[in-house]
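New to this. Help decode the following:
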Amino acid sequence: MSSPPSPSPTRWFKALRRTRLGEPCLRTYPLECVDLLRRARIAFQAGRTLKEDFRLAQLEAVVRMLEEHECDFVDALGRDLHKPRFETVVFELIMVKNEALHAISNLKKWMEPQSVEKNLSTSLDECLVISEPLGVVFIMGTWCSPVQMCLVPLVGAIAAGNCALISPSEYAVHTAEVLHRLIPFYLDNECFHVILAGISDLPEIVELKFDHVFFTGNREDGSRIAVAAARTLTPVTLILGGKNPCYVDQHCDIATTVQRIAWARFHNAGQSIMAPSYILCHTDVKARLVQALKCCLMQFYGPDPRESRSFGRMVNLEIFNRTRELLWRSGKVVVGGQVMEAEKYIAPTVLTEVAESDPIMHQEVFGPVLPILAVNDVDEAIAFINKQEKPLCVYAYSTDNKVISRLRSETSSGSFCSNDCIFQSLMVALPFGGVGACGMGSFHGRYSFDTFSHRKACLLRGTWFECVTYLRYPPYEDRNLSLMTWACTLSQKSQGWCQIM
């Protein structure tokens, strides 16, 4: 297929003006996606990404890009989400740098073949598992954490030796522009490409046939991506949002509990797939919890959060209107509730008297709204959680280890954290991913490397044991079958050492 025509000077000038004025940048046309995929596949097939030195150089380039253009990312996220500099640096840039530096430190070990247990017939052979790159992968980020959710998976793809196309969220337009502008200056121009596409265009792009698809977003969009990938039998990793429950026991440190929950729910103006979606609060501490939340929000954001430099805004009017509608149709506002459409501002809001049937309990909420439901004990909390779809995260606050143990073992979720929120999803040593309706697959650290690798079984055999293995050949005789059965009986007792297959 011929390449699309090069953009005219007039179009490049318009693109430059749009970037400078902060207007939406040009989209990547379907023909351009086809050409970028073709170039990436040619680069992969040429073995460009296989060597450790190449992978290390690309990972180091990611770190350099973040360090040299910190101000660009801070400015872009400020314009997209009114995101405070602190949140951008700590939870976007440092997160990605930590992933890249961890991969750099461990890449040699990850790339080494892994030996596995042998049996008698393979005792003189080599039994190995080799991690080989999948090929060209497609990474789709979300607007909630537009840098982190694009570049953390990219680090894993690079470490595993893949080429990649990256699609930042169209909602975070300024951040997408920065990634589109900077990545070609730092990463290999044939192996790594940024495309600018709308969420409605992504299924069509997925159908172009990649070797793996990584998507972060909501369930509805994730389902469409999975269907499109299934048409070409493309494996997927889906990190999807949902309703993350948070149980607050009567035996807990209320002051610390409230600070940690309030930070997790209201940072980035509540736009996080990992934040607690609602509190299941023991009736004995509900009143104290609500009062402590009022005091905590005053301490965090002052008497008017709209004036606080530490509080963000909704990413666009669509998300703003959806969140406002859920807020107005559910429960009773006891803290916050103020909205300003012109600024896409919704105040940090706490709801009580929330019923299980309220709309806010049945839809994903990407906004600064925290419903509180009362339960009589941990049994009722566990039963409530298990009636819902499996969540991405379950949180539990208690000083009673038995309560924590029960929540952890008697519920199922993508991840679990006690006496804090979100941090289990930020650690390079822990996998983060979904289960059931909140997704499939995982990433972070070694788990990202494995996600973007094929673990190939390799048996390197000699011919030394033909005097034994001949028993498997025709013509089949009862004597040979008896010997094989006897060997299998021994192998069950010695964990496979005497197998003669």
Q: What stands out?
A: The chain has 17 helices and 20 strands.
